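Pasting as-is:
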Amino acid sequence: MTRFLHITDLHLSAPQTEDPTRQTDTVAAFDRLMQVALRLDPRPDFIVASGDLTNVGDDASYALLAERLAAFDIPVHMTLGNHDRRAGWHGAFPGHAAAPEGPVDHDTVLGNVHVIALDSSMPGRVSGSLDEAQIAHAEEMLSRHPDLPKVVAVHHPPLVDPSRNFAWATLDLESTDRLATLLSGRNVVALLSGHVHMNRVSFWNGVPLVVTMGQQSTVDLTRSDALAVVEGTGFAICDLLPSGLQATFVPLAEPRLIKEISVERLRAFS
């Protein structure tokens, strides 16, 4: 089994950052997330962070993220979202081929899985897109390691249902169609996205699409008259089993313990 975590929408703002849109203490939420990750059993082989790493794209918040990750012993593969700024990320994480302001598209092998991250951010826009150069680069990356299962991360989820969608909430239709063509037949075991601050699993053209709520807030899905933003943070534990992907959503709010049942007793249940 290979275990990895999907985290997204960190929306980090360093304490000194002037951020008029700061909603919650995302630094504390991120620290709590890292503490939880380190005590999971089995421990994750790697973590995928699918964008909106910061809330306003400032240098101080990227520096804070780099500092936290430098002290963390689980590898994290990340890309950017619409709240991020490419120049700021490149400054804190030097060495990327697209520096100083190009898209954060890159791949690596972690835990015997080929992990590919695509940068769907468009400067000045809320919605997401992948341009022609990125599509060509993505095809090149996807062609590598054909013997390994692939996990692909992109901040904006693809347009799954054109009849029920806001344009800002997904990749545009052209990028969605191109991505669908690219992923076909590539042994992609998971497509990881964020952006919409909710937990959701879809089977999109045969690929499991896992959308996770993130570390800032979530939305009240019972409301249809408005977008109601409410408290809520979490992440997904993704276990790649011989039978396929299992994704388990984990809330990060401190729970009130009701009762405990020992492992020995659980094993004794018929």
